[in-house]
């Protein structure tokens, strides 16, 4: 017999928790985001989450298919936050650039959660809405479907890859992150020009650039390439 799907309202805890709140998927996800921010992924467990919510850990399984289901819900929340405040203008290149920056920013606001979820595919409504939006922008701009899918793939993967990379740096301990950033001045800037002429020639530029995210530059390169492909298709 097929397993019966119970809607959230039917799964919602009837009685308040020990803290006087009524559990919901959103409350659990928001609490999990806070715990990830404060303790990292190693600090997120059903037991600790239940304690933070004032509920028995087993209650969480009425809302999610285990901790992996919660992870997918966290990813869905980050995608949803990326869409908040973004509006299409009809200029496909501008719209994709702003959407990419929104995605990157939403993930970096929760670096520990970004590391945990950037590589996941949730198949949930807000993720689907984001995918539909990107494909819609590209197809409306005139990209044939094979090109639209190719650029969509590069756009989404680039956005999430940089989100994970930059989140990894933000998630480091302050001393480790500072030490990494200082390498450009303490080590690279002092390399002998006779042995490393190209690094020596660009040392000042490297020190100024390498502590910042390359995502905006990479995004502009991707969109410029996409625009060139579109122009070629139109015979320009």
From TrEMBL:
Gene3D superfamilies: Homeodomain-like, Tetracycline Repressor, domain 2. GO terms for molecular function: DNA binding. Residues 22-82 form the HTH tetR-type domain. Signal peptide: none annotated. Keywords: DNA-binding, Transcription, Transcription regulation. Residues 45-64 bind DNA. GO terms for biological process: negative regulation of DNA-templated transcription. The keyword Transcription applies. The keyword Ligase does not apply. This is TetR family transcriptional regulator. It comes from Streptomyces venezuelae.
